## 1
Amino acid sequence: MPVITYREAVRHALAEELERDPNVVVMGEEVAQFNGAYKVTEGLLARFGPKRIVDTPISEAGFIGMGVGASMLGVRPVMELMFWSFYSVAFDQILNNAANVRYMSGGQINVPIVIRGPANGGTNVGATHSHTPENVLANHPGVKVVVPATPYDAKGLLKSAIRDNDPVMFLENTMLYGDKGEVPEEEYLIPLGKADVKRQGTDLTIVSYGRAAIHSLKAAEELQSQHGLSVEVVDLRSIRPLDIDTVLASVRRTHRLLIVEEQKPFCSVGSQIAFMVQKEAFDELDAPINRLATIDAPAIYSPPVEVEQLPNPARIVKAALATR
C-alpha cells in the first residue's frame, strides 16, 4: 500500500472528486496559481483549469458567501480557508445561512459545500491565527464537523464530505500536513460520524481527535512501556455527527476515561462528551472522568511555551496517571 503525506491525501481526494463530478470546484485564496498556501492544491490548476480551480480575493465573507450561493444552485464547492481562525469573518454566511437553508426551505434546497483548511496552534503564529473552532461550529444544527488525524482518514473523510448534501466543516492541521501513512490506491470512503479505535486497551480509554489523537497514541505507548498500563485510544474523526456509541463501548471495557483535545477547556467538545458519558455510563466508571485541553489562554507566541500550552505526550501521560 502506498505511503503518502497527509497533504497528498487531501490533494488526492480533491483530484478524484473533481474527476468524478464536474460540479465539484475548488475555490479559495491562492489555491490556483500559487498551488495553495500549504501546497495542498498543487498541480490541480494545470489539470482541471481555471474554471474548476479558482483563486479568490482575500475576503472570506465574499468568497464563502459566493460558495454558499453556488451550492444552493447545484455546484459542489470546496472552499479553502487559509486559516480557520478567519471563519468568524464569514460567521453569518456559514452558520446563519448555510447551516439553516435546508431546514428553512423544508428540505427543498441543499447546501453541499465543504469548507476546509487548517485549525490548530503550535505554529507560533499568535492568537489571531491559532483558533480551533470545532466546538463553535458543532453547536449549530445543520452543519457537520470533521477533524481527521491521519492521511488515510483525511482522504476517505474528505471524499465523503464532498459527496454530502449538507455543509461540512473540514478542519485540518498544518502540523500534520507532512505526516505519512498508508493510503490505498483503490477508491474508499469513510462515513461521517464513525469513530475509530486506533489502539485497543483494557485499563483506560483516551478519547481524542486531530493532532491530539496522534499525541495520545504516543502517550499510550509510553504508558504501556513505562507504567504497564493498557490504554485504548478512540479517535472521534467526526465531531458532529458524534459517534458516542463507540466511546461508550470503550468506556464499558476500560472503566476509565480521559478526554484529550486541542481546545480551550471551557465549553469544549470534551465538556459535551464528559456529560454524555456520565449520563449513559455512570455506573461503568471506576474513577472520575478526566480532561486535558489547551491551557486556557490566547495562543502563546513563544515557541517553547506554546508547546507546553497545547496537549503533548508528556502532559497526556501525566493526566492518564491521574485518572485512577
## 2
Amino acid sequence: MLTQRSRYALRAMLYLAQVPTGGRPTSMTRIAEAANVPRKFLELILADLREAGLLDSHRGKMGGYVLARPNHLISLGEVIRVIEGPLALVPCVSRTAYRRCADCADEADCAIRQAMARVRDETARILDGTSLADAIAEDLAAA
C-alpha cells in the first residue's frame, strides 16, 4: 500500500509534469495548493526528489521547482522508490535491499517468496513502464 508521503510526491510530480517545458519554475506554495499537499510536508518530499535528481530547484523571488528531465522520461516507479525505497513487499525479493527472512527455512522452495517475486516483477513492470506523461494522458483521457 502506498503511504500518504508517496501519494503526495506523485501528486506534486504529476502537477509539475503538466507545467509547460521551459516555463518559469513553480513555487512550493503553488505546488502545495494545486496538489493539495501540506506545505511543510511537501518541503521534505521535494528535497528528497531534488536530491534524487528528479527535480531542479531555483532560488529567489522567481524561484521554484521544475522537472529535471522531460515528463516522459520520469517513471512512477522512480518517484515511489525515492520516497518508499524498494517496491518489494518482502525483503527476500528486493533487488536493491535484499535481506533474507529470519524465519525462512528454505528460501529456494519458499512459496511466499516465489509469489512475492512475481508481484514485485509485475509491479515494477507497470510502475517503471508508466511515465508522468503517460499518467497525465490517462488522467486527461478519463476526464
## 3
Amino acid sequence: MARKGHRPSQAPASRPRFYGRHAVLAALANPERNVRKIWGTREALGALDLPPVIPITYADVADLARLVPGDAPHQGLVAEVDPLEEIWLGDLLQQGADDKRPLVVLDQVTDPHNVGAVLRSAAAFDALGIVTQDRHAPPESGSLARSASGTLETVPWVRVVNLARALEEIAEAGFWRIGLTGHAKGTLAEVMGDARIALVLGAEGEGMRQNTEAHCDQLARLPISPKVESLNVSNAAAVALYAIAARG
C-alpha cells in the first residue's frame, strides 16, 4: 500500500460536488473515495445499487440544477464527496520502478477542464500518473471530474510544493524529462529515444516557466502545421502520450 499524506479536515462547504453519471459512478466505485451524500432523480437513483450508509435525496431536475454551476449537465445525479488523500511523489515513482509508463508533469496548468482532459488521456495511454503544483493547479471539482470522465478516480495525481525539486526527484528515479515547447529544435519523435519519459507541459499561452525548462533534460516540439500556432495543452498531452505509447 502506498504511503499517503493526509489533507487537513475539510469543512462541508469545501467538499466538491460531482455531477453526471461518469463522475458519480466512478466516485462510488473508488474505495479510496468517501461519498458523503447523493441527490438524484428517481429514475437515475433507481438504476443504482447504492450502499445504505450513503444519504440520498430525491430531487427533480430543477432542484439538481441549483446544486451545480449554471447549465452543468448533471444527468440526474449529484454527489458531495471528500477530496482524495494526497499521494507522495516518492511512492508513485516507486510503484512505477519496474515499468516504462510515462509520467505527466503540468507546470501551472490551472484550467480544470484541461487538467481533467489530461487525466483522461493519461488513463487512455496508461501513464503512471500526473504531477502538478499544489498552489497553481485546480482543486478537485465537478467540472474537473466531468472533464476527466471518471479517470480522476483511477489516475494517481501528485501535488507538490516545488516543481523544480520534484523534477529533480523524477530524474533520480530514472526518467528522461522532456519539455514540450514550440521553440524546440527537435520533434518529440526525434528526441525521446527508449528511456522512461516524464512529459512536461506548461500552461496554454505562457508555456513552461524558464526554471521548469531548465529542469528538463531535453526540449521537444510536436510537428504541427504552421497554419496553427499551438495546440491546447490537453490536446498536446494526448498526442504526445500516443507518440510515446506507439514508439514500440
